[in-house]
Amino acid sequence: MTHSSGTYVISTTLGEPVRAFVPHPLPPAGSALEPALFADLNRQAELALARLSGVSGLVPSVDWLLYSAIRKEALLTSQIEGTQATLTDLFDEEAGFKVSNTDDVEEVTNYLRAFRWVQAQLRDPKGLPISVRLLCEAHRLLLDGARGAGKQPGELRRSQNWIGGTRPGNAAFVPLPAPIPQGRPGELSPV
Fold first, then answer.
1. 8 A C-beta contact, residue 58 and residue 51
2. 45: burial class by Cβ within 10 Å (0-12, 13-18, 19+)?
């Protein structure tokens, strides 16, 4: 069974037409969330959690288990932006060794710093909840001193973004056009 999570609209960005993805409003309507549809996926998720629970008993602390996993995620996410840092580069920098690609390693380090800050905020009863303010501050930390420092750190984006390609017209994915229109995203109609 195929599920559609949104539609495409044609918008104009940088003078060219672009197919932008507009997600359906949440929560979904209809029987798409029928429990029987997800029984097998739920069973697989429960098995994966049970395996993780078993492995977590073998390590000294959850923080130790997460140490490398978070760094690997930081590296993979940063690579979307074109960084070339490796896990070895990151470990070398953390150990105080000189690394040749300091700009790339700094971007990954900023990712880790932003992650730790968000984690602390969410754990602290007086910290920020999941909110635009929390995300904007994390974004400011992410771009602090890095190549994106001139790209409105800590602010919501005001122009169209895209993933893959050199412009929205040849991108692999173009999200909802900016600025977000008034009303619910699902209420947009193709232009």
1. no
2. exposed
